[in-house]
Amino acid sequence: MVADTDSSDDDAIGYPLNKIQKLAQRIVHISLDGMPGGSGAFEVVAKFCYGEKLDLMANNVAMLRCAAEYLHMSEEYGGSNLIKLTENFLDNVTVRSWKDSIRTLKSCEPLLPLAEELSVVKKCVESITMKISSEPSLYGWPELDRKRMLQSPSGKLLWSGNSAKEMGMELKVDWWYEDISILSLPLFKCVICAIDNRGLMPEAVAGALMYYARKAIPGMQRRQEIGHGQLALSHSTSSRNSEQLFCLETIENLLPSQKCITPTVFLSSLLKVAMILHAEQRCLDSLEKRIGAQLEHAVLDDILIPNYSELSETLYDVDCVERIVKHFVNTSKSLVLGGHSHELDFSSSSSAFPLVSVAKLVDSYAVEIASDANLSPVKFRTIVDSLPHGTRVLDDGLYQAIDIYLKSHPSISETEKDALCSMISCEKLTQEACVHAAQNSRLPLRIVAQVLFAEQTQLRAAFTCALEAVASPRTSAAEYLPTPHQSHMLPAPRVANVENLRQAAEINQIALRADLTTLRHRIAELEDECIKLRQRLERKAVRLNSLSSKLGCRSSIHAHLPSSISINPRLRKSPASITSSPCVVKSHKSH
Q1: How far apart are CA 227 and CA 506, in angstroms?
Q2: How far apart, in Å, are the Cα atoms of 3 and each of 31, 33, 131?
Q3: What InterPro entries does the database record attribute to this sequence (predicted)?
Q4: Do residues 173 and 154 touch, judged by C-beta distance below 8 A?
Q5: 3-class state of residue 438 by DSSP
Q6: How far is CA 455 from CA 234, 252, 429, 449, in A?
Q7: Are the CB atoms for 276 and 234 separated by under 8 Å?
Q8: Exposed (0-12), middle (13-18) or buried (19+): which is 553, by Cβ within 10 Å?
């Protein structure tokens, strides 16, 4: 910027400009390339020097304060000079209004670092943080009043520890998110750090960071697609955007460290974008640890992380999920087990035990990735076996995942198939899963035999309980219901109630007899299946023995044969006789 001046015009200047006067003594053309605000600021200052009225506003006060400092317009060169006027406006007008504080701070973006050195940024930030932690109606409503796009993580706290109900107001904790989101990242960081130091609830800080991230990082606005072509396009365009990467790493560093403050779905989205942008390993590790610490609150979509690495051909990043689960186990081990080695009590709700919820999540994840043709058996077994033993209440999800994997990978060896199927605990399979497994040709015969034995054991236990339940109503009726010759001694309503109870007991006995008949038929079917299976195994044993005799060794297949199980003939009586005879179940010694 060049300004023409003449020393003869010095008398016309109301307030001498020390720097310009010194330059004018030597040259005619004055260069002010470092002038804050450029030619526009110089024009306003020049008019002020010639006595024109100065119109100070929130949008220009920071610029004029920096320009006055650059031109040395202090009280030393004239009363009520520009430095004093702008300082008074900042202290008495700007900081008193929420709108003016936001506008002034926004105008400081091109004036850094001078605006920060002159404490203009500090004054605006302190004003904003004070109003956020106070009742906003005392300082004017937020500048932007459009519909909010983000709900706060916790709607209980409003500001200063007062709830909206206590204050008689229906305001949200996120009323200030949108206003500060118009700031540049350095100024936004200053506001967040000041809010955090002031002791505001971490939920509010996390909500503001989430709002800013979704607005500043385009990848946070949408779910990452799984198609390889779309991933390649997103990868090529986002990797060059260093501003988004810097913003992401800054936001991750500002997130509260407390558990469950930041929603898992946001952390997962942040991790996916960080992988696309090739964020630093420190940032990736921190996000994985954050997700792992609260994995019990995650859903399947949160851990379905596409594989962005060119070194692996799998569809999903299984290694990343494995690390997340390990972080969760390391974090929860001392909390759940209490530092002692004992079995978990699963009689309570699964929500009380995070390991149980995560076990269901891992099983769902295993079901989702099992059909990936590029997933090796070792990697699949690693992710399935990433939780401690005994954390699963039921193994139905595990069985479903292994069955899908065997169906999608028919070429795996028998050794690998046995290693996968050995992870299934047949005692933890429901009846529906047992029926499916008994007819599943993809499972090894040894596993099928174990499933049949486990199902027969369950049916035997259910059979015994049913017999006890049948005998119980008859005993209770004999004890508490009056005999027919005593019914005429009771009032009419009482006689009706007695008859209803007796009819209900008879109906229950009929239903239980029908259930017992079904159970008896099912046990007979299982006996037939066991006999057929044993015959198949014996035929294979004969062939193997004949082959091994030539090789000089013996087959050990008999060691894996299940023992036969027989039902006492008394269980084959008619349903009517079952209610009066005890149930006796016999079984040969089994492995």
Answers
A1: 62
A2: 7, 11, 43
A3: NPH3/RPT2-like, NPH3_dom, SKP1/BTB/POZ_sf
A4: yes
A5: helix
A6: 51, 51, 9, 10
A7: yes
A8: exposed
Tens-digit pLDDT profile for residues 20-30: 666 666 656 66
The residues pairing with 4 across neighbouring beta strands, listed in sequence order, are 29
Closest CA to 362 of 378, 376, 382, 343: 382
CA neighbours closer than 13 Å in the CB half-sphere of residue 30: 20
Model-wide pTM > 0.85 = no
Cα 20 to Cα 31: distance, rounded to the nearest angstrom? 10
Is 219:273 a contact under the CB 8 Å cutoff? yes
DSSP lists the bridge partners of residue 567 as 585
Helix, coil or strand: residue 31: strand
Which residue(s) pair with 316 in the sheet? 306
Which residues make Cβ contacts (< 8 Å) with residue 161, sequence separation at least 6?
none
Distances (CA, A) of 197 to 104, 106, 173, 191: 22, 21, 18, 10
Give yes or no for a contact between 152 and 204, defined as CB atoms under 8 angstroms apart.
yes
Tokens found for residue 138: 């005392």
Structure tokens at 311: 């070194």
Interatomic CA distance for residues 202 and 257, integer angstroms: 9
Residue 67 identity: A
Measured CA to CA in angstroms, residue 120 lies from 58, 92, 143, 413 at distances of 12, 13, 20, 72
pLDDT digits (tens, 9 = 90+) for 244-301: 999 999 999 999 999 889 999 999 999 999 999 899 999 999 999 999 999 999 999 9
Q: Which of 205, 305, 178, 218 is nearest to 262 (CA)?
A: 205
Structural tokens at position 275: 């992988």
The first and second tokens of residue 526, run together, are 């299982």
Residue 185 CA from chain centroid, whole number: 26
Distances (CA, A) of 354 to 262, 307, 318, 331, 398: 18, 27, 21, 11, 18
pLDDT tens, 446-495?
Answer: 888 888 887 777 777 776 776 666 666 544 444 444 444 444 444 444 44
In which residue are the tokens 């179940």 written?
Answer: 585
589: number of CA atoms within 13 Å, CB side? Answer: 0
The tokens for 534 are 């044993």
CB 588 within 8 A of CB 453: no
495, with CB counted inside 10 A (0-12, 13-18, 19+), is middle
First CA to last CA across the chain, in angstroms? Answer: 95
Say how many C-beta atoms besides its own lie within 10 A of residue 122's C-beta.
14
